[in-house]
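ok so for the tutorial part 2 we go from a plain amino acid sequence to predicted structure tokens. step 1 is just haveing the sequence, like this:
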Amino acid sequence: MDPNNQTPQASQPEQQSQFVPPVNQVPTQPTVSAPPTMPPQLVPASQDPGKTLGTLSVALFWLSLIATTLGIIGLIKSKKAGYKNTRAIIGIILSLIVFIISAVTVVRFLTSDSFKQAYCKDYPTDSTCKTVTSSTSDSNSASSNTDTSLKLYKSTALGFELKVPASWESNQIPYESTTQALQVRSGDPASGGLRRIDAVLAYCTPAKQTLTTAAFTAEFQQLYDGNVQSKIQGETYQPFKSFTVNGYPAVQLDYSNTEPGAEERHQDTAFLTKNGTTICHVGISDTNSELPGPAIFDKADEIVGSFKLL
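step 2 — the prediction. this is what the tokens look like for a chain of 310 residues:
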């Protein structure tokens, strides 16, 4: 056989290789790597939401209510964010201390004698103006209205001393717009009826012109005569009296009303002082004298006789 003339044989198909898994071999699962861990992010201290409010509460501690409010809000914000706001705590404490000191100061001022005197000077008829304690040079007290034992009242503000009933209420009040007067009372009017009111009123005013003793006496004699001529039913006038008290020329007008329901007695003693330039008055009144009460006119001469300028 001619090898060159060999007929080509049909080519045999290739056998495809097949994967045969090994017996009893479990397929392996793919390995999944864990995600990389991120380092914790630090929050800067400047992001404390209550720090600014805490600082303001310290800076404004003298404005107690505002500082306390700012401190509380700042403390709450810091606490929610996980911060300890020391400044806010300090601001709250300081503002509360200021508030307490301010409250005590206000209460002490409102209950002080000087405030009471100033208030009663502007509102003398206010029911709260009962007993007002004067300065150390002034004295007063209020207890039993029926006690007429006397004490010496000295007032550098008014410029004189005078014996007054020790248990009555003593106040310095405005008189005729520009004058301060001492008023000592035993009672007050009651709503719906009348109560006994006994009082001593003392004050000094400048004379319209320098007066001699004769001119001073004549002026009040004329006033007395005019009152007598125009007196109303039930009024009785004691004789006009001119005398001297502690070296001061003095005159006295004394009248009473015996009309039922209007019983009263008033006595006004005027003193010429400071070389005729000042006239001082001591008035004693017994109103509703039909009611039981202290016999103030039993002490009238002692009261008048104790008047003296300081």
